[in-house]
Design goal:
Layout lengths: L15 E13 L7 E6 L12 E7 L14 E9 L4 H12 L3 H6 L5 E5 L4 E5 L8 E4 L3 E5 L14 H9 L10 E2 L4 E6 L2 E6 L14 H16 L8 E4 L4 H12 L4 E7 L8 H11 L3 E5 L22 H13 L4 E3 L4 H5 L6 H6 L4 H12 L5 H6 L41 H11 L5 E3 L5 H9 L6 E4 L2 E4 L1 H7 L5 H4 L9 H9 L1 H8 L5 H4 L5 H8 L2 H6 L1 H20 L12
Parallel strand pairs: 2-3, 12-13, 12-15, 13-14, 15-16
Antiparallel strand pairs: 1-3, 1-4, 1-8, 4-5, 5-6, 6-10, 7-8, 7-9, 10-11, 17-18
Helix pairs in contact: 3-21, 4-5, 4-14, 16-21, 17-19
């Protein structure tokens, strides 16, 4: 098969380009292809057009060179981090690979490709397996609209499902727009008049390692892959990293330093001693000789702000902390900000049991060691023996099926709502933060632990190597710890247990029940109008400190969902009676 040429002046795995912050398109189908209106604009700017032609916007950082046109009537739009310079030769190759359906070649092009190719009568939306970009589209018979921002595709207020909004309040990672389609990772969606065809092109296959690979050998392979994923950021200017006190971000930082990258570490600093991880993060930086920048976080009235504009519910904690971090990172001129996302999925346990030990592809001596560890664990012998069945996991009581559901005693009960299932292809909170916090400041989040090589390693890693029962303790992510054991002091890589990371958020709720009463309990609140928040139940929760603490996370998530509904009402014309009405 023909080899994909390297972009002019670059090489596979070359320096990343982080100027492409999103894209939008309106493409009519049918008849003679109308003229193209194309602009390269600062993030979020949407020109007003009066003609019915093809309208295309490439959002980019100031001073970004225009993407070369594939032809007079074709345009290529990109979003996210691109590896190597975007030259005419690179654009020509990508265009022909897409138009000719040569998907195997597309998978071999370096980087986390994501974007759109608009041709005369077809549009190709593409997203590689490791791309974390969100691409959305809405197709009728004669018109296609696509955007990295789902709010661009709305025709009016309330275009979301009531059940989805209820689940967002509960904390589920759910997409609330049933009328909008998404491009899954590792696929190309070909859109023509009235039809959409999806083709998978970038599968993640298990890493090719010998049978009975040991845990130590997995750790050595993992380190090589982490360094490989970090290497492109060496020699391209200063790179930031979000450094918690955990091992995932510490591993990414160690790899960046190994590659010689100029790196600065940013840490969310809290005044709450129960959640303060700064000693661990500072120890990592001191050991590696990396500047440590603690960023103070807001615990006061600014924690919730009714002026926020959301394209999707950000139903997680501490959105204000993201704003404060982004302000400091942008002030320092950082374009690429790495973090340790995916560490749990790559190295952590999903299930564990005697079946995984006895039938796993690992050496006999390690099976014996793991069996001895099980006998010293907290689990009783009958339960261990039952886990010899592939249908039983010893973690069933630690990792509830469908995800851990937050208590939400103030919501109107909605029977039959499914449990939240973790979807690695869908991260609405992170997409929302990208559109509202990071991209407006020209910052690209980078995820070295989500590289294709490490995902392939995860597909090969036996379940028995994701947890290590030892002397009565359960050691999570043993391969990651083994990988770091010679690179950090013992106090860092042997860290076990957790701080009470939710303490600042619970403290905020306990100190500000009146704010939640005003935001969620009044008759004009959108969630009250929709019958999702029960004012009586809410008043009962807000009156009891114990129930406030129990419901703290879901109260914050629900407040953020209410702010989303208010921003939606401001963004679009009101419906009948001026109310938001879900489908």
């Amino acid at each position: 098969m023909e080899t994909v040429p390297v972009p002019d002046g670059g090489r596979p795995g070359g320096p990343p380009v982080g100027d492409y912050l999103g894209c939008y398109g309106r493409v009519p189908f049918g008849g003679h292809a109308p003229r193209v209106s194309y602009v390269c604009a600062p993030f979020g700017r949407r020109p007003a057009w009066s003609d019915p032609g093809r309208h295309l916007v490439q959002w980019a950082a100031p001073g970004t060179p225009r993407i070369p046109y594939p032809s007079e009537r074709e345009r290529l739009l990109l979003t996210g981090v691109v590896r190597g310079p975007v030259t005419p030769a690179w654009v020509h190759r990508l265009t022909h690979v897409l138009k000719e359906g040569r998907h195997a070649e597309l998978a071999r092009m370096p980087g986390e490709l994501s974007g759109a190719l608009v041709a005369d009568h077809r549009v190709f939306l593409f997203r590689s397996a490791t791309s974390e970009e969100a691409l959305h589209y809405r197709l009728s018979r004669d018109l296609l609209r696509f955007s990295t921002d789902p709010a661009d595709l709305l025709d009016g207020p309330g275009e979301f499902g009531r059940e989805e909004v209820w689940r967002a309040c509960r904390g589920d990672m759910v997409f609330v727009y049933p009328g909008i389609a998404r491009v899954p990772p590792g696929t190309v969606v070909t859109l023509e008049r009235g039809s959409a065809t999806t083709a998978a092109y970038d599968p993640v296959t298990p890493l090719d390692l010998p049978p009975r690979t040991t845990m130590t050998e997995f750790a050595e392979a993992a380190w090589e892959l982490v360094v490989e994923a970090a290497r492109p950021y060496a020699g391209r200017g200063r790179t930031g990293i979000l450094l918690s006190g955990g091992l995932d971000s510490a591993a990414v930082l160690a790899a960046l330093v190994e590659c010689g990258a100029d790196t600065v570490a940013y840490h969310y600093a809290t005044r709450d001693p129960l959640a303060d991880e700064s000693a661990y993060a500072r120890a990592v930086c001191d050991h590696l000789g990396v500047p440590f920048v603690p960023v103070p976080t807001d615990h006061g009235a600014g924690y919730l702000d009714e002026r926020w504009q959301f394209p999707h519910p950000y139903n997680h904690l501490a959105y204000r902390w993201l704003e404060q971090m982004a302000e400091r990172v942008a002030q320092d001129g950082i374009t690429f900000l790495a973090w340790g996302r995916e560490g749990d999925r790559i190295f952590g346990p999903a299930r564990y049991g005697l079946h995984d030990v006895l039938t796993g592809d690992l050496p006999a001596r390690e099976k014996a060691t793991l069996c001895r560890g099980l006998l010293t664990s907290r689990w009783e012998l009958p339960r261990i023996l039952r886990s010899a069945s592939p249908r039983t996991s010893l973690l069933d009581d630690l990792v509830p099926a469908g995800g851990a559901v937050r208590p939400a005693d103030f919501l109107t009960p909605l029977p039959g709502v499914p449990a939240d299932v973790f979807d690695t292809a869908h991260a609405p909170q992170e997409h929302c933060a990208n559109l509202t916090v990071w991209r407006p400041r020209g910052i690209q989040l980078c995820n070295p632990l989500g590289s294709k090589g490490l995902r392939s390693l995860a597909a090969r890693l036996p379940h028995a190597y994701r947890l290590l029962p030892h002397q009565g303790r359960l050691i999570t992510k043993p391969v990651l710890r083994l990988m770091l054991s010679g690179r950090f002091p013992d106090a860092v890589w042997r860290r076990h247990g957790r701080l009470w990371l939710g303490s600042p958020h619970k403290d905020y709720v306990l100190r500000h029940p009146h704010l939640f009463a005003r935001l969620l309990g009044r008759p004009d609140a959108h969630l009250v109008r929709l019958g999702i928040v029960d004012p009586g139940r809410l008043a009962h929760v807000l009156a009891e400190p114990a129930r406030l603490r129990l419901n703290a996370e879901s109260l914050i998530g629900t407040a953020m969902t209410e702010l989303f509904l208010r921003s939606d009402a401001r963004r679009t014309p009101p419906g009948p009676g001026g109310r938001t009405a879900c489908r």
